[in-house]
Amino acid sequence: MDNKNIHIMQEPTLAEPSTKIFTDVREVVITRAIANEFHEVLDDRAESDVIIIGAGPAGLTASRELSNMGYKVLVIEQNNYLGGGYWLGGYMMNPVTVREPAQKFWDELGIPYKKVAEGLYLTPGPHAVSKLIGAACDSGVKFLQLTKFDDLVLKNGRVAGIVVNWMPVSALPRNITCVDPIALEAKIVVDASGHDSVAVKRLVDRGLAEWKGMEPMHVNDGEEHVVNKTGEIYPGLVAAGMSVTETYGLARMGPTFGSMLYSGKKAAQIVAEKLKELER
């Protein structure tokens, strides 16, 4: 036998770590830290200047703008993640587009992009949305995820807050659960809940507003009108983003997001004016 062709496999040996990497922490300390921080946010933002329903591009933009103005802002989101449809472009493909001049929002946040046609710009959705989420957090916005809008608080003919519950509660059969919601108060509420337009529909249920539903796609008309129609639906309730489209029966614009960003910015400006009026 030719010993030159025999290879003996040796068991690998694991070297003992020479230095400790992580500090020892008890599990209960981690639990208490999470619980205390969550309840601190809930206690502080149970009464806010502005509550925004939905953490999509319109809601995130509005929240950042208002927080940078010095207002106390809370965003509720029924998903466990923030960003809404901004993570994806269309058809499960993640590049997102905006039409000029909306690329200026990307310039402001330091998001790289490329020009793909005259007046049309493109960037990876994950890059765009993560930058926007980070900017909102940096501005001081606070978030409650897995939080489902349930109803409005109405006082003296105006919206004065929202009623919320845990999102998982809605998945439980009614015959085995009775979990009451809680109320959060705010001077102004923004419905940026997208196609669901949940707050507007609560007003419709009570005969206090109208809702028409989205029309077929027309990118140019859809984007123009959603910005123009962004505004107060009822005293204390401002609609932004796709909630505007659904409320007024506007054309859908598909996977381009410039009007969502502009609508969020306009909503913030309107809210700021309404807050100043309330202060006066």
Summarize the structure in words.
Helix 2 packs across helix 8 (258-279) and helix 6 packs across helix 7. Strands 1, 2, 6, 7, 8, 9, 10 and 11 form an eight-stranded mixed beta sheet that branches. Strands 3-5-4 form a three-stranded antiparallel beta sheet. It has one domain: FAD/NAD(P)-binding domain. 36% of the residues lie in helices and 23% in strands. It is of the alpha/beta class. The chain starts with 26 loop residues before the first helix and ends with a helix. It has helices spanning 27-45, 57-68, 103-109, 125-139, 198-205, 219-229, 242-248, 258-279, and strands at residues 47-53, 73-77, 95-99, 114-117, 120-124, 142-145, 147-155, 158-166, 182-191, 231-234, 237-239. It has eight helices and eleven strands. Strand 7 (147-155) and strand 8 (158-166) form a beta hairpin.
**What's the name of the CATH homologous superfamily?**
FAD/NAD(P)-binding domain
Q: For the residues shown, what is the average pLDDT? A: 94
Number of strands: 11
Largest sheet: number of strands, sense, barrel closure = 8 strands, mixed
Query: How large, in whole angstroms, is the Cα Rg?
Result: 24 Å
User: What is the N-to-C order of secondary-structure elements (H for helix, E for strand)?
Assistant: HEHEEHEEHEEEEHHEEHH
Which CATH-level-2 architecture? Answer: 3-Layer(bba) Sandwich
The CATH class label is: Alpha Beta
**Total discrete domains:** 1
Whole-Å distance between the termini?
100 Å
The total count of helices amounts to 8
- Overall shape: it is globular
Which terms would index this structure?
single chain; 280 residues; alpha/beta; FAD/NAD(P)-binding domain; eight-stranded mixed beta sheet; three-stranded antiparallel beta sheet; 11 strands
